[in-house]
Amino acid sequence: SGSGGYFGDLKPAQAAVMAYVSQQDDDNPEGIHVGGIQRELGAKFSPQQIKDAIEWLTVEGHLYTTIDDDHVKSTGNT
Prior knowledge:
Number of strands: 3
Distance between the termini: 18 Å
Oligomer: single chain
Mean pLDDT: 87
């Protein structure tokens, strides 16, 4: 049944991105760089899976871009 919690309805890559960004959000007012997400999650997911997850999460309103298209923050909507 997966990890459950707030991100239980998301696909594994989406849930992993959300969990990572949510954990880092308070420390980073300008958001998390996409490259940092890929470095952190790259052992489990391909760069394309991570890119697709970030894009989907942004379109669906879970993440938003900040200082540029390569920095994201969580909206808190899960």
